[in-house]
TrEMBL record:
<protein>
    <recommendedName>
        <fullName>Integrase catalytic domain-containing protein</fullName>
    </recommendedName>
</protein>
<feature type="domain" description="Integrase catalytic">
    <location>
        <begin position="1"/>
        <end position="83"/>
    </location>
</feature>
<dbReference type="GO" id="GO:0015074">
    <property type="term" value="P:DNA integration"/>
</dbReference>
<dbReference type="InterPro" id="IPR036397">
    <property type="entry name" value="RNaseH_sf"/>
</dbReference>
<dbReference type="GO" id="GO:0003676">
    <property type="term" value="F:nucleic acid binding"/>
</dbReference>
<dbReference type="InterPro" id="IPR001584">
    <property type="entry name" value="Integrase_cat-core"/>
</dbReference>
<dbReference type="InterPro" id="IPR012337">
    <property type="entry name" value="RNaseH-like_sf"/>
</dbReference>
Amino acid sequence: MFLWDLRNTWIDLVIINGRARHPQTQGLVERGNRTLEVALGKWMQHNKTDEWSKGLRPVVYSINTSVAEATNKTPYKVVFGQSPRSDFEMWKIISESGISDEENLPGDFIDIFDE
């Protein structure tokens, strides 16, 4: 049931069976799994549910956007080189630009958004 829930949540998920070649790597994997397990447990408790698969997206997003002590950066920023964008930021740019409908979006809107 667990793997089926994962496959339904992430259609393109590839599951690889096996273990890490080095014990140190296995320890890091287990630590990451424990972090996810604890965070999902808190999410389920807070939301009064046992449907952990519904909490995967918000919990993983939360983990990936939390500042790590070792790097003083979020995992998201380390991987992608930028902070994640939010709808709030997009609407703020649209509002400040005086855009009232999509036909008035400038051709370089994506470039403006990237600034």
